[in-house]
Amino acid sequence: MRSLIMTAAATLLASVAFAASANAEVPKGVAQNIVLVHGAFVDQTSWQPVADILTAKGYKVTLVENPLTSLAADVAATKKALAAQIGPTVLVGHSWGGVVITEAGNDPKVKSLVFVSAFAPDVGESLAALAKSGPATDGAKSIHPDDKGNLYLDQKTFPEFVAPELPLKIAEKLAANQLPLNHTAFEAPVTTAAWHVKPNYFVISTKDRVNAPEAQQMMAARIKAKVTEVPGSHASLVVFAKDVAAVIEEAALAK
Fold it and tell me: I need a labelling partner for 148 at 20 to 30 A (CA). Which of 12, 79, 196, 254 fits?
């Protein structure tokens, strides 16, 4: 899926200078590590445009590869990535990844949490519960299980509901190559909520048709996050990569 994401990034972000100075260094005394956790239906390369921007600025960026088989498995993958970090780290989640960082973010290395078009459950809440409590969206209605209990977004509506800003052919390829989320992950409640004890940032996508902007606003207010809004869809991490990277860097530089 990497080539699809990078093609989209090249198309939409040609004006962004990823390669800053080869000697770019992060100021001392701030978080130099960024761990990025992807959402359902895509892989870790969905974060690549953001990762390229931050890497060019001198940050050590790690892309977590979620198995998407269960909440526990994704949390384990994230904790493994955190264990490899040396020093303060900003932990970032997109969409379903917000559930994962909520559960995994109590690690003492984690300086702050950044939620991007994400879900931020409290203890005892699952993604399924959050989806039911907020406004119903076209994207959520298009999620269906297969005969093995794996959840997929409808391929026909994926381009319109998930990534309308991307070139249609790329969005169609992403739809055809999506990775399923096991229904047990969707239904699993979190047992801890790291946002209670960590500084929080939230990028709200105001045109999101998967995770309703109203629901994002509610969750951002509940976790007392510093909010940034972008006029994008659920694919804001690609389309507004520069803005998302700026929020992550703000979290890294905060004293």
Answer: 79
Sign, CA dihedral 86-103-69-53, equals: negative
- Residue 22 has what pLDDT? 45
* pLDDT at 120 (0 to 100): 97
- Catalogue all structural domains in the chain, each as residue range(s) with its CATH number: 2-7+31-253 (3.40.50.1820)
Token look-up 């959050």 returns 130
DSSP conformation class of 41: B
CB 211 within 8 A of CB 173: no
pLDDT digits (tens, 9 = 90+) for 214-228: 999 999 999 999 999
Residue length of the chain: 255
Start-to-end Cα distance in the chain: 36
Mark the ranges of the chain whose per-residue pLDDT is less than 70: 1-23
The angle that helices 97-104 and 71-83 make with each other, rounded to 10 degrees, is 60
Report the distance separating Cα 66 and Cα 181, nearest Å: 10
Q: What span, in angstroms and rounded, lies between the C-alpha atoms of 164 and 210?
A: 12
Which residues, 6+ apart, have CB-to-CB distance to 37 below 8 Å?
64, 66, 74, 78, 91, 92, 93, 94, 97, 100, 101, 104
